[in-house]
Amino acid sequence: MNPIGLILFGLIAGGGWLWLRRQPPQERTRAGLKLALLLILLGLLFLAITGRLHWLGALVALLLPLVQRLLPLLMRVLPWIHRHTQSRRRSRSQSGGTSTVRSRMIAMTLEHDSGVMDGEILEGTLKGHNLSRLSKEEFLQLLSECRASDIDSTRLLETYLDKRFGAQWRVDDPGATNSDEQVSTTSSNMTREEALAILGLEPEADRAAIIEAHRRLIQRNHPDRGGSTWLASRINDAKTLLLKD
């Protein structure tokens, strides 16, 4: 290619790049494909004019009808690929986040990567304390208060105790045999905000992100793997609610 041709091609490519940068983010993939196709066609046209195309011209002539047929299909597929890639990227970025499960008396957090649980007491004589700093006697006191007033708080605290101490804590639990009778069996309906917090998602999360977050959490907290039946139920409920929207 002679110097003039190189300069012209460079100017066109530079102008195309500036045009591409001004496109909305969601349109850049489609615009980039169009720009690349235009540059290829201009390059082939230059080779044809200067007599340097030779056998490549015949090959392009054969392939051009096929490209024309495939291009509309590719244009339809590219946005789906872009959305899927973005969803996977969001899911990976959320893998280092936390989930939050709230009841009337406890706000529990679960770190996705480490599986570490902690919580803040929202009501009762130990209000404001973190679960990770309570003594054995304080745990039993809090559990008694939860059983007297709120079933979700009871199940949430029992989940934490199982996670931290295993089944051994139940040996010293004076209310273990009749906890179900000491609390109401009704539970408040889950809101969309609560469901998002449980799965550790942002409000704009799409279907793929919801399914991925649920899969990751349920693997760590499934009862068959030593997790809590109650917490697994909340995770499943959160997924069901969000997928209905």
UniProtKB/TrEMBL annotation:
Q: Start and end of every J domain?
A: 194-245
* A GO cellular-component term linked to this record: membrane
Location in or out of the cell: Membrane
- Would the keyword GTP-binding be found if you checked this record's keyword annotation? no
Please give the chief subcellular localization of this protein. membrane
Question: According to Swiss-Prot or TrEMBL, what is its membrane topology?
Answer: Single-pass membrane protein
User: Which InterPro entries would you find in this protein's record?
Assistant: DnaJ_domain, J_dom_sf
List all membrane-crossing ranges. Answer: 6-21, 33-49
Keywords recorded for this protein, A-Z = Chaperone, Membrane, Transmembrane, Transmembrane helix
Q: Which domain of life is it from?
A: Bacteria
Return the similarity comment: Belongs to the TIM14 family.
Its recorded name reads DnaJ domain protein
Q: From which source organism is this entry?
A: Marinobacterium lacunae
